[in-house]
Specification:
It is built from 14 helices and 15 strands. By secondary structure, it is an alpha/beta fold. It has 2 domains: about 200 residues, Aspartate Aminotransferase, domain 1, CATH 3.90.1150.10; about 230 residues, Type I PLP-dependent aspartate aminotransferase-like (Major domain) (Aspartate Aminotransferase, domain 2, 3-Layer(aba) Sandwich). The strands form 4 sheets. It has a 7-stranded mixed sheet with strand order 6-12-11-10-9-7-8, sandwiched between helices. A 4-stranded mixed sheet has the order 3-4-5-15.
Length: about 450
């Protein structure tokens, strides 16, 4: 996890039984279930949902139910959720108009040897909504889409190297450092080029055999500032056109969230291929690749030298497509993106004010729809940064605010002003607690970020 060893986490994650007047949460059932899970599942929970990715011992492990933007764990603790299932829950939990439509499809059946017409309705909507979308290939997860997009690009160009800027899921092509289970020969087929350096992308293109440029248009990495560079994306668009290389936007996070048509719409740069998932169906498992007909046609050609074979037992199940159709209709009818950005702008402005009030060595690291605040490691150094981070997020979770210490948050349609203000109040009070336990350098860095 971003270079943090288990020993490092264990050293700094231990917090007092009472922190700023907040007692430890009762998580007895969560920890009991975790021990049960460890007997049959690696570590009980692995990946980004594992306890080590939060503050071990302080965060719940198992959730029982949710409503709106609130959720309750299996010990009965209530939280205002700002992680949104890592992005999919753009509206809120348990939206009846979505679930009722899904239940009607359940009663008719949803897993057949042939598709149902819901896919046609959804594909038509995506072609209307997503910039550059002429055809659609459905899948299940964000990682599915980035793998499919690369496969399409290689089939179309007959070339092999992928130039990219960062994380695009857990598949082999997106792991840049030596890792068990991924042959070095496979990793070398992906060339990582820094976001913002179109000149370096062109250098790699000139070396030859480049099948695609893949970027997240809005840059996001764990514990780093979220931002976008329109001129850089315009430069990539020009390079892709000049060298006849597909430009792929990974909009798994930004799609349907930053704007209805994603970052491409918000920023005004149109790719050849777009990868979508997360917010498309408000938590139902669905993903899609959209793009130019001439490129996606390689899927229709099947295998062989002019096509690529993409198929899955579950890609065309209709339950998730029903949910997505309902979700997209709701977005349009209720101007969801405008509302999310309005709430996010208020939240972001108040974060700035709180950071300035405390002269905190922090960075307001998000954008309105994906807010984030981070302690500045360059100012604090690793030890004080870690101690401050673990203490703040322990205070937040004990206050009923479910945010991630390293991952950005998300604003959802069902967040109320009261929800936002409670989170902001907890941040304000939490910084007082951190200052008392871990005094910061006297330097005021709030003005420089």
């Amino acid at each position: 996890m971003a270079g943090l060893s288990p020993e490092f986490i264990a050293k700094y994650s231990k917090q007092p039984d009472v922190l700023g007047g907040k007692k430890r949460l009762n998580l007895t059932n969560s920890f009991k279930e975790l021990e049960r899970a460890k007997k049959v599942i690696p570590s009980g929970v692995y990946g980004m949902r594992g306890p080590a990715f939060f503050v071990p011992g302080e965060y719940p492990v198992y959730i029982d139910h949710g409503k709106g933007c609130h959720m309750w764990d299996i010990d009965g603790n209530e939280y205002i959720d700002f992680i949104a299932s890592y992005g999919p829950t753009t509206i809120g939990f348990t939206e009846n108009y979505i679930n009722d439509a899904v239940k009607q499809r359940i009663d008719k059946g949803f897993s057949f040897s042939l598709p149902q017409i819901e896919q046609n309705t959804l594909a038509e909507k995506l072609c209307q909504i997503i910039p550059g979308a002429e055809k659609v290939v459905f899948a299940r997860t964000g990682t599915d889409t980035t793998v499919i997009a690369n496969r399409i690009a290689r089939a179309y160009t007959k070339k092999k190297y992928i130039l990219t800027d960062g994380y695009h899921g857990w598949s082999d092509f997106s792991q840049y450092e030596p890792e068990a289970g991924i042959p070095e020969e496979v990793r070398k087929l992906t060339k990582r080029v820094p976001y913002g350096r179109a000149d370096l992308f062109e250098e790699k293109i000139k070396e030859g055999n480049v099948a695609a440029i893949m970027v997240t248009p809005i840059y996001h990495e764990l514990m780093e500032k979220i931002y976008y560079d329109k001129q850089f994306l315009l430069d990539l668009r020009e390079l892709a056109t000049k060298y006849h290389i597909p430009l792929i936007f990974d909009e798994v996070r930004s799609g349907f969230r930053t704007a209805l048509g994603g970052a491409a719409e918000m920023i005004g740069v149109t790719p050849d291929i777009t990868c979508l998932s997360k917010a498309m169906a408000n938590g139902y498992i669905l993903a899609a690749v959209t793009g130019k007909s001439k490129m996606l046609q390689t899927v229709a050609n099947g295998g062989g030298s002019d096509g690529t074979y993409i198929s899955s037992t579950f890609f065309l199940n209709s339950l998730e497509m029903v949910a997505a159709n309902q979700t997209l209709d709701f977005y349009i009818k209720n101007h969801v993106n405008d509302e999310i950005n309005r709430k996010g702008e208020y939240f972001s402005k108040r974060i700035d004010e709180i950071i300035a009030k405390h002269h905190a060595p922090m960075i307001n690291a998000g954008i309105p729809s994906m807010p984030s605040f981070l302690f500045d490691k360059e100012v604090l150094g690793e030890d004080l940064w870690a101690a401050s981070t673990f203490t703040l997020f322990t205070y937040l979770i004990r206050s009923g605010i479910f945010m991630h210490p390293y991952h950005q948050s998300y604003i959802a349609y069902r967040h109320t002003k009261e929800d936002l203000d409670k989170a902001l109040d907890a941040l304000d009070k939490g910084l007082d607690v951190v200052k008392q336990l871990h005094p910061w350098p006297s330097q005021n860095v709030a003005d420089r970020v």
